[in-house]
TrEMBL record:
GO terms for molecular function: methyltransferase activity. This is Methyltransferase type 11. Gene3D superfamilies: CAC2371-like domains, Vaccinia Virus protein VP39. SUPFAM superfamilies: S-adenosyl-L-methionine-dependent methyltransferases. The lineage of its organism: Bacteria, Pseudomonadati, Pseudomonadota, Gammaproteobacteria, Chromatiales. It comes from the Bacteria. Residues 42-137 form the Methyltransferase domain. InterPro entries: Methyltransf_25, SAM-dependent_MTases_sf. The keyword Methyltransferase applies. Keywords: Methyltransferase, Transferase. GO terms for biological process: methylation.
């Protein structure tokens, strides 16, 4: 039976090859600019391999991360060590993270918040974020547009890593327009000298939010002064062509 949103060994390896440290979609520069005067500490839940966290550390920001995937955290720790960086990293999830610190900011880039597919649980996580922030602290997170709910699954892809070949095939198994969720089956394969040596099958589920719906959820959780950037441009008006919305709330 496949797991959901697990990011096991092959999935984490493919993620690290496809989204290496520092690869930006406009988000790293945006988050760095928005946090430039932030005294810290900053928390990044679902930190993954450190694609965003490490460039922020290199800019002198006090950032720490949590993730449920031991494999993703291993990539992040190795990348930090290679660069002579140090950041507290713990294996925790959105719904169970705990810290004695009060954070100046919590960031969730790349739509990772959408991994929480139950809206009630998502709202509870927003309340946890609010409770973990110091007075005046900020939550900054990315969401894909609701229109992406009906986007087709990605094409088959492959990556070379030394003498090994990794492949990823995605098949959409469910699109639920009422719950605003999708679920895809991801099949990861590792090939060596033309021979299949490992396979990993995961289910990848996401929930999509409307702009007003999410703004109301933020306000319900106790946030205010909600600002929305479009494709990492502040002041831009939302449009049907937008690929990412970034919400910032205090």
């Amino acid at each position: 039976m496949a797991d959901t949103n697990r990011y096991g060994p092959l999935a984490a390896r493919v993620y690290h090859l496809d989204k290496p440290i520092g690869r930006s979609f406009g988000d790293i520069e945006y988050y760095a600019e928005r946090l430039a005067e932030c005294p810290g500490p900053v928390l990044e839940p679902a930190v993954g391999n450190g694609r965003v966290l490490i460039p922020l550390l290199e800019r002198g920001l006090d950032v720490r991360g949590v993730d449920t995937s031991a494999e993703m955290l291993a990539h992040c720790r190795e990348a930090c060590a290679t660069r002579g960086l140090s950041a507290p990293l713990e294996r925790q999830g959105f719904e169970d993270f705990s810290s004695a610190l009060a954070f100046a900011a919590i960031i969730v880039p790349a739509g990772s918040f959408q991994l929480i597919t139950d809206p009630g649980r998502a709202r509870a996580v927003l309340r946890r974020f609010r409770a973990a922030l110091r007075p005046g602290g900020r939550l900054i997170l990315d969401l894909e547009p609701l229109s992406a709910l009906t986007a087709p699954p990605g094409a088959a892809r492959h990556w070379r890593d030394g003498d090994e070949l990794l492949t990823l095939t995605e098949q959409r198994v469910e699109t639920d327009p009422v719950r605003q969720t999708t679920c895809s089956q991801l099949r990861y394969e590792l090939w060596r000298e033309g021979m299949l040596v490992a396979t990993e099958i995961d289910l990848f589920a996401l929930r999509f939010w409307g702009i007003l719906e999410f703004e109301l959820a933020l306000r319900e959780a106790g946030f205010e002064a909600v600002e929305i950037a479009v494709d990492y441009r502040r002041g831009a008006a939302p449009s049907a062509q937008a690929g990412m919305f970034t919400f910032e709330a205090r």
